[in-house]
Backbone:
């Protein structure tokens, strides 16, 4: 154990003015585009009424090499922005008017909720659409937008921020740690695919996702409230689930299909959304776009249905939980092949007390540890005692103390939900001063009640 004080951390406590100054040196400035509202009619906003946001959306799509939305498609995107309350940060060349010009840097943030433990939600600040134009990279554009966003998130009472990343090396420096992983799996479905357990009760039927109404949304919400790491669905998700995307297909839909499980009393207990990849794809493949089940019978019923679709030789799912459940469900687990196993949800702790008091703990654990947290942006820096008793956590800020473990805020975010183990981080050399006994105690305290998983991206 090492004696630590807060002095080192408080030197960093003020939000730095540096990032904006660095932008100015490059003739750039940061500007905020506040969230927009839907028109009173409830229809989509007209993109021509929101020129700065429309330019921002286009710039972000280009940053990801996506098709640039125009006309009614852009209106629908703006409607989703309005429903989520998305705010846009843009970095512009000095003298440029955001209403006439695309920004050189895009960044979107908005407030939502995340399941911290089954049945418990905390506010989360979600970050997305981060791009910097190729000609303006490595001039501090990202750093300026992120610093501003995290300061606003903390000031508005968000205990954590969250994002998903295209590259795993970008966000650690801003204090984001890997809190949940996902698997991209492929299942060989040639021949009859049997389940390992008994035949599921209830029945599964195909249904048009456009006729599902609120069913999928309600199921998804009930499952995500029990799934640590999952956030409230975005407006864009809702459009996709109901196959309402305005596309070049003139409103005929994108070919999405749904399967619904009803229990023996006819109650809907689970549903899957899936898409056929086309006859030109070999082997013939369906992609699962969403799969939610409230019961084991619903899960097994949907798996049996999806794995035994006529003419289909492969089923794939890119956002599959990293928990081994599918392999355990099948009589032949080797049918499941993991194509990619990757970091998914990144969490950044902004308020240590609110984050760790906002989740539940194993009811039988009664323990306390002192954590010394380093945070270059200051938000979570300090000495914190985490005490766990009767399933609840309590966090006290200490002025000076013997720390049981010293760690960067990035590792704190990775540990928060229990989706990354302290033992793993310690063996990777990322927890200072922690004995094996301490890491075991930390793991016992933080173990999640259910596997940590992000059900939908944002
Ligand atoms: C990733 C991206 C947003 C970075 O923007 P940027 O303005 O060049 O970043 P900054 O100049 O603010 O750099 C901030 C820090 O991150 C580092 N960094 C930036 N991009 C990085 C990357 N891809 N990998 C590793 N480090 C990176 C910089 O070296 C710098 O480090 P330092 O502060 O320790 O010196 C930009 O390269 C981009 O738009 N990429 C394509 C779209 C994309 O991947 N977006 C991310 C979506 S999740």
Residues:
């Amino acid at each position: 154990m090492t004696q630590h004080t807060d002095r080192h951390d408080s030197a960093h406590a003020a939000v730095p003015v540096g990032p904006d100054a660095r932008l100015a040196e490059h003739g750039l400035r940061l500007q905020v585009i506040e969230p927009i509202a839907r028109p009173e009619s409830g229809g989509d906003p007209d993109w021509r009424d929101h020129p700065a946001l429309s330019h921002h959306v286009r710039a972000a799509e280009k940053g990801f090499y996506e098709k640039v939305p125009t006309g009614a498609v852009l209106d629908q995107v703006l409607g989703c922005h309005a429903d989520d309350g998305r705010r846009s940060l843009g970095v512009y060349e000095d003298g440029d008017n955001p209403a006439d010009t695309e920004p050189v840097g895009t960044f979107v943030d908005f407030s939502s909720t995340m399941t911290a433990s089954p049945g418990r939600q905390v506010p989360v600040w979600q970050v997305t659409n981060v791009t910097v134009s190729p000609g303006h990279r490595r001039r501090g554009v990202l750093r300026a937008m992120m610093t501003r966003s995290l300061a606003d998130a903390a000031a508005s009472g968000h205990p954590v921020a969250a994002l998903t990343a295209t590259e795993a090396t970008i966000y650690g420096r801003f204090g984001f740690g890997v809190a949940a992983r996902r698997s991209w799996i492929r299942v060989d479905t040639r021949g009859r695919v049997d389940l390992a357990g008994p035949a599921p009760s209830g029945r599964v039927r195909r249904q048009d996702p456009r006729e599902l109404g609120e069913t999928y949304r309600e199921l998804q919400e009930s499952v995500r409230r029990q799934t640590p790491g999952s956030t409230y669905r975005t407006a864009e998700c809702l459009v996709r689930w109901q196959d309402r995307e305005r596309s070049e297909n003139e409103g005929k839909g994108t070919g999405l299909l749904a399967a619904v499980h009803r229990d023996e009393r006819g109650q809907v207990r689970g549903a899957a959304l899936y898409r056929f990849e086309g006859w030109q794809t070999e082997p013939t493949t369906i992609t699962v776009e969403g799969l939610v089940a409230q019961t084991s019978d619903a899960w097994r019923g949907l798996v049996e249905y999806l794995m035994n679709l006529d003419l289909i030789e492969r089923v794939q799912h890119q956002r599959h939980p990293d928990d081994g459940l599918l392999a355990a469900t099948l009589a032949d687990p080797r049918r499941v092949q993991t194509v990619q196993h990757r970091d998914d949800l990144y969490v950044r702790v902004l308020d240590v007390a609110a984050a760790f008091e906002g989740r539940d703990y194993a009811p039988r654990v009664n323990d306390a540890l002192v954590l010394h947290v380093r945070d270059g942006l200051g938000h979570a820096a300090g000495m914190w005692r985490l005490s766990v008793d009767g399933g609840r956590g309590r966090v006290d800020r200490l002025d000076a103390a013997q720390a049981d473990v010293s760690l960067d805020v990035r590792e704190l975010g990775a540990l928060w939900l229990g989706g990354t183990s302290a033992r793993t981080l310690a063996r990777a050399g990322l927890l200072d001063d922690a004995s094996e006994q301490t890491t075991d105690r930390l793991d016992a305290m933080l173990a999640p009640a259910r596997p940590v998983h992000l059900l939908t991206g944002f």
About this structure: The chain has three domains: 15-181, 183-343, 352-446. The pocket of coenzyme A is lined by residues 63, 130-132, 137-143, 165-167, 169-170, 173 (CB under 6 Å).
